[in-house]
Specification:
The chain has 153 residues and is of the alpha+beta class. It is 30% helix and 26% strand. The chain contains five helices and five strands.
Length: 153
Amino acid sequence: MSTTADTSHADAPAIRAARPEDAERVFFLLKQLAASYAPDRQTFDESFAFLVDDESTSVLLVAEDAAGLVTGYALTTITPLLYTNGRSAQLQELVVDHHVRGSGVGTALIEAIEAVCRDRHVSQLTVASRRSADFYERLGYRSTADFLKKTFD
């Protein structure tokens, strides 16, 4: 169940597919994502261009306010899995500008990602979250596994 701030439609963000001209603002938001990787602009530009054009395995959505400022983004990958009897999606990144956190932007992005997943007949949507479990649980997600990671230099 959502909070009152999440359900207020007066200032609801517009959710849309990312476009090439969103790169600068998405890079700015990416730097707010607490992660073990420092964003590299050249790598970002290459990846961003790919993700904007890729319609088969990636979903990159942005939220923008009434003035047209991108205030958040969500990146999801979709792939067929054997055990799910079809497609599975994983929310890879969700970033909301720290100035508007708690205003429903994150919820709107998740709901839009879920709608895309339903439209594409995805069996499940997973998300790995170390610090935001309460947010996802409020939206109906439940913990089912631990995610482990190994990085390659």
